[in-house]
Design goal:
Alpha-L-arabinofuranosidase 1, Glycosyl_Hydrolase_51, 5-stranded antiparallel sheet, alpha+beta, signal, 285 residues
């Protein structure tokens, strides 16, 4: 008797649940159909509120070459030969060699005069009868250097050589065939690093230029922190004038650096951009 009542009771319960679900669904559908909502917006001037001037600012992050290759006017990419980090051998890209294995040997070591950036490039010229243009290295910058006719470019680099060596620094087309500017520089023999400064005045325009450092006689030279900048940077701070001018036109009231985790309320944007370079943040760069 009990065994027959159990299946019957189960069927009754199941039917009840099905009826309940159907009823709820119908009620919900009815509720959705009959519900009407309205939203009123009053945009009249009497209810308006002035947006604070301090709400508008700039968010700057060093990604996709926003800084190096962007707002920073430095034309040389990987000027310290440390794209691969502080260890040697280091990645020197995009620097490339002019010549072959029989005429020049290029490597890196940790003999730089800079305490925080110890990697330096060592270039050994091997040829007795070097090609007419010499052998050495070149740097194409960030997708090619935009060199403009009549403009002056300031070359600064550090070098040392055990014996005096004569070198040539040039701005050329991407294939090296068109010379836009060139100057001879001498690295005196000795064990100490020296700072070399040279102005290069472009005698032509080329949007995809490169910087060349070459030599024609046997010898060894170390190079580090090779910098090339246009002479007309914004107030001499090293920033591109046209990009800083665009930022100033926005009239920002603050400038935020995400990695720095700091927010600057600013009156003069050039000070803040310069300050960001001076402060090392939690990511240590």
């Amino acid at each position: 008797m009990g065994s027959k009542e159990t299946p019957c009771r189960a069927r009754t319960t199941l039917c009840f649940l099905l009826l309940f679900c159907v009823s709820c669904k119908c009620s919900a559908s009815e509720f959705e159909i009959t519900q009407v909502a309205s939203l009123g917006v009053d945009a009249s001037p009497r209810l308006s509120r002035k947006i604070p001037d301090t709400l508008f600012g700039i968010f700057f992050e060093e990604i996709n070459h926003a800084g190096a290759g962007g707002i920073w006017a430095e034309l040389v990419s990987n000027r310290g030969f440390e794209a691969g980090g502080p260890h040697t051998p280091s990645n020197i890209e995009p620097w490339s060699i002019i010549g072959d294995d029989s005429s020049v040997f290029v490597g890196t070591d940790r003999t730089s005069c800079f305490r925080r950036n110890k990697v330096a490039l060592r270039m050994e010229v091997l040829c007795d009868n070097c090609p007419v243009g010499g052998v050495g290295i070149y740097n194409p910058g960030f997708w090619g250097m935009n060199i403009e006719d009549g403009k002056t470019y300031n070359l600064v680099m550090h070098a040392k050589s055990p014996e005096t060596i004569e070198m040539t620094v040039s701005l050329t087309s991407s294939d090296g065939l068109q010379v836009l500017a060139s100057a001879a520089i001498r690295v005196p023999g000795g064990s100490n690093w020296i700072k070399l400064d040279q102005k290069l005045v472009a005698q032509g325009t080329n949007r995809t230029s490169r910087l060349q450092i070459t030599a024609k006689t046997k010898g060894v030279v170390w190079l580090d922190q090779v910098s090339l900048m246009p002479s007309d940077t914004y107030k001499g701070h090293g920033f591109r004038t046209e990009l800083i001018s665009m930022l100033l036109d926005l009239k920002p009231r603050f400038l935020r650096f995400p990695g720095l985790l700091k927010l600057f309320l600013i009156e003069k944007i050039e000070f803040v951009m310069f300050a960001h370079i001076l402060f090392r943040h939690i990511w240590d760069y």
